[in-house]
Amino acid sequence: MSTFVDVNIIKYLCSCGKRHPICRLFLCRHCLKLRCGDCVQHEVDTPYCPNCLENMPSAEAKLKKNRCSNCFDCPSCGHTLTTRATSTSVPDPEDPNKTTPKKMYYMVCGFCRWTTRDVGIPDKPVASGGWEDLENKDAKQIFSLLETYEKIAQKEKAEKERKKYVRRRSYLSYTAGMDKYGMVSVAAKRKQGNLASLTIKENEEVSFASVKPSETVKMFDPLPESIFTEPIQLDKMSTISQRHASPEFQPCESSSLYPLHKHLLIRRSLRCKECEHNLSKPEFNPISIKFKIQLIALHHIPEIKIFSPPELVVKKDCKVILSVTNPSVYNSSIAFLPMDPKEDDFSTAKVELPKQAIVVALRDDAALYDDASQGQEAFKDDSSVIAYRKSNKVGVFIKVKPQNPEQEVKVSFILKHEYRNTAIALPSENQEPQIVSLQHQVFINLGPVKRK
After folding, report:
1. Residue 169: per-residue pLDDT
2. pLDDT at position 4, please?
3. Residue 224, Cβ neighbours under 10 Å: how many?
4. What does the DSSP 8-state code read for residue 224?
5. How far apart are CA 264 and CA 180, in angstroms?
6. Which of 301, 281, 318 is CA-nearest to residue 11?
7. Closest to 335 (Cα-Cα) out of 398, 285, 283
8. Spatial separation of the C-alpha atoms in residues 262 and 259, rounded to whole Å
9. SS3 for 333-398, per residue?
């Protein structure tokens, strides 16, 4: 029994009005709405290196320019570099006439076979931490500009704070003789503290002496004669992607490529913008693949798939089998409702849906390995509506009548199902989960019609 699966042909309507596959949606258990990646708040938990899985605080990651200090990427193809050990002979310090073996290390790419020896980088006596970084000649100019702009921003912030306090009418003079409880002195100290926290003083001016002004280039050096006389060796030239990978230096030749520090990744948590509850929160340790909270819609909302590619003929009723999967641990009642024609701008064909509610069995992990399935007799299924039933999956017949032979057959309907809200129930008080009826708009693209 196979199922025709494609996440791009069956989409659910999100609360922000966008259509996404169910695997990319989240269900908020408090406001009971579908959320996508655009209508949730992304929060940074911790930056970490994807190679050595070392996590660090956000402030430290900012100082390191969001790069790992111990892991490197290949400047030629972008894959991770690995450290290789080799043995070299060095003079013996006790007897200069003799040599002793010494272990040295170099880095090599396992994909394109690029090594640090190809560009003349000497081997290092330590496996990690001994690789120097190239110094940018414009680093001092960049840092001086950053410091100057920070001072200007602080000065502007100080002026805004002073204007804010000047606009307010001060009542300290009226209550100076009535300061019975000492509240006036506390307010005055707080006001002085707010202004003192700003580093720019009243008589201090931002100094631009350390900033070297940029010079306009009017004349360029002429091109060398070798460009016109010698052929270009493309195997020795760097590509545009290789130059953009190192924006500080942008090497023009392959011999100038230098190992790149690996970019850090971020473990992030998702929060609902409406009720501010967490929808997804991973473990703090980057090694762990578990989640503290994971409210992906695939674990709470029935999933709909196309059981097999249908044969669609224009102006004829065609049977399509939809596979419905119940992800919850309770039996769920599912109903298919038609869309309002005034609000439906997606459908290009007429669809006939089952009129009665369908009960889908609960999810049982042990039943997946059992060949015996719950038959239609246990649920008293109608053979004209139910195509098959196995474990927590049910095949449902729908009739589709394509209208236009030039357009793809698209249908839409409303999926109504029961949801047991376990977020409100308190286990300590032995409360039963609240049963809520949810409705979701489903959009299915069945593909083109059959050509004669």
Report:
1. 54
2. 58
3. 9
4. P
5. 57
6. 301
7. 398
8. 9
9. EEEEECCCCCCCCCCCEEEECCCCCEEECCCCCHHHHCCCCCCHHHHCCCCCCEEEEECCEEEEEE
Angle between helices 139-167 and 183-196 (to 10 degrees): 150
> Up-side HSE of residue 137: CA atoms within 13 Å toward CB?
2
pLDDT at residue 202, as a whole number: 46
Max Cα distance, the chain (Å): 99
User: Do the Cβ atoms of 266 and 45 come closer than 8 Å?
Assistant: yes
Rounded to whole angstroms, the Cα distance separating 212 from 141 reads: 7
Partnered with residue 445 across adjacent β-strands are 410
- Sheet with strand 40-48: strands edge to edge: 40-48, 265-272, 278-282, 291-294
Question: Which of helix, strand or coil describes residue 143?
Answer: helix
Provide block-wise average pLDDT over 10 residues at a time, the chain (452 residues). Answer: 65 92 92 92 92 91 90 93 89 79 91 91 84 84 86 88 66 50 57 52 56 80 86 88 91 90 93 91 88 91 91 90 91 92 89 91 75 58 88 92 89 93 62 84 90 68
Amino acid at 268: R
Instruction: Tabulate helix, strand, coil % of the chain (nearest 5).
Output: 20, 30, 50
Based on its alpha-carbon atoms, the radius of gyration of the chain, rounded to whole angstroms, reads 34
Pick from 359, 340, 355: which is nearest to 412 by CA? Answer: 340
Cβ atoms of residues 81 and 109 within 8 Å: yes
Cβ–Cβ contacts within 10 Å for residue 191, how many?
15
| Distance in Å from the first CA to the final CA of the chain | 29
Phi, psi of 159 (to 5 degrees): -65, -40
Helical segments of 168-233, H only: 183-196, 226-229
Distances (CA, A) of 203 to 155, 200, 255, 351: 11, 8, 53, 77
Q: How many H-runs (helices) and E-runs (strands) does the chain carry?
A: 6, 21
pTM of the model: 0.72
Predicted local confidence at residue 129, as pLDDT: 74
The DSSP result for 240-265, as a single string, is HHHHHHSTTT--SBGGG---EEEEPE
Q: Is 129 left (phi over 0), alpha (psi -120 to 50) or beta?
A: left
Map tokens 């520090």 to a residue.
Answer: 261
The amino acid occupying position 148 is T
Cα separations (Å) of 140 from 63, 66, 144?
Answer: 16, 20, 6
pLDDT of residue 201: 47
